[in-house]
Amino acid sequence: MHILLIAVSSILLSVAAQFFLKLGMSSAEVKQALAEPMTWRLPWVVLMNKFVVLGFGLYGIGAVVWLKVLSAWDVSKAYPLVGLGFAVTVLIGMLMGENVTGLRVLGVLLICEGVWLVANS
């Protein structure tokens, strides 16, 4: 059970990373840089955005935590758990007012069913 909590922690870190990256890429300064002709300024503006930096940092921490999971479980068992991130992301997206269709919910439920099948194999 302990390793499952570590896996879930890694997945939650990745989900949080996605939302911070989205926040950074939705910021006024990044949108302005994206609207201008492509120059070396664009990567600088994106990579210096505090939310993008935080998102990449959370991804890095999540990857290090995931190494513990890989040390204990077969990849074929561990990696399908990453699918749970889809469910958490959709739930958070819904709470934030994103348009989540019934078809998207069905797809996520199918992913969760697959994760359950793999976890019980």
TrEMBL record:
Sorted alphabetically, the Gene Ontology cellular component annotations on this record are: plasma membrane
Where does it localize? Cell membrane
Signal peptide extent:
none
Regions that span the bilayer: 51-71, 78-96, 102-119
Alphabetically, the GO molecular function entries are: transmembrane transporter activity
User: Could you tell me what this protein is called?
Assistant: Small multi-drug resistant family protein
Membrane topology listed for this record: Multi-pass membrane protein
Sorted alphabetically, which keywords does the UniProt record give?
A: Cell membrane, Membrane, Transmembrane, Transmembrane helix
| PANTHER family for the chain | 4-AMINO-4-DEOXY-L-ARABINOSE-PHOSPHOUNDECAPRENOL FLIPPASE SUBUNIT ARNF-RELATED, SMR FAMILY PROTON-DEPENDENT DRUG EFFLUX TRANSPORTER SUGE
